[in-house]
# Entry
Amino acid sequence: MAFSASQLRFVQLLLVVFVVVFILLQLRPSAHKATGPTQEVWSDHEWDNFDDIRNETLGVEKVFAINLASRPDKRDNIVLGSSLSNFHVEWIDGVTPDEINSKSYPYNWNHDHKQTEYAARRAHVNGLQRIVQERLASAIIMEDDTDWDVSIKVQLQSFAHAVRALQLKDTQKVPTQSPYGDDWDILWIGHCGVSCKTDLPFYLTPNDPTIPMPHHFRPLWRDSPIFKGYERPDHSRLVCTASDAICSMFYAVSYRGAQRILAALSVNPSGLAEDIDIGAQFDVSLGRMCGKGYLRCFAPFPSITGGFRQAGPKAKTSDINDETGEQGGFSSSGVMYSTMLNINRILKGERTVHATWDDVDVLDVVPGDITMAQGAIFGISR
# Structure
């Protein structure tokens, strides 16, 4: 059957409309199949408060560091390093065993642990108490031997993209309290091992230039997270809902989270401590709360922050463990472009900073040139 000229024009118009609609659907971010688990490209262009992370408190209300009065050398490190990274630190006094009245120990504390371990736990609890008392919506608590990358604010912005995406439910909502989202208790940013809830989605950011190769990771006390059907590429950073972690060297805590941890570790309402706290060191108990679902916790892998060791005897390193022998020179662990090791370069106004190790792809980099790629959610459909 022959078509008239007007019919042919109508058919051609329908084909053009079909092609345009098809192209638009392909460009729109949507769930699609990928190798391994389901991948979902996530866009948050309507959320505009990521720049809050570039402020003097890294996107939370306050940044605290725990430090013993007897270790002003470690305080010097944090004060100088944070000033060069343009964020401000307030102090929480460390605690020594002789300052603790035996009456203040929780009834379920395991006295097989060292007294110094309880003293360290008490210092963290004092920090949580301060967050609750001052009604802070969120805060960061770090330990005084922490080191961080010169690009920490860029790293935390990328991390915020990930944790926001993992907090989404049915609709995208602009966070009202924090650039990291509103539904979290702990952001375990610095650790020495993490376990993930593998039945929940995870977020992967590819080609992160600040990730060390695995042989340069801090000594890990947990196996690397494994999701069925997917293996993390070496230069990709994974962010997951954490079921456990170890080492409390750098973490963010929300007001709700601080209240809940204070309740579990010190106030101990009936039945609470027995279920989620085993009278252990602070990080061990915190990890248990994440695994039990008492806290909603998110963590990157590998860790974003690392550790710094000064030159000299090993005894200078830890205020909990009695270490002996010589440490050697200054060293950083877990951080590609260490702030502490680049202090002299930064103070001299040099344009570039140097990598922590010599076997990396880019030895010298301009801090402002460090950028992060857009990531994606992987895992089960939500």
Remarks:
- The longest strand covers residues 237-245.
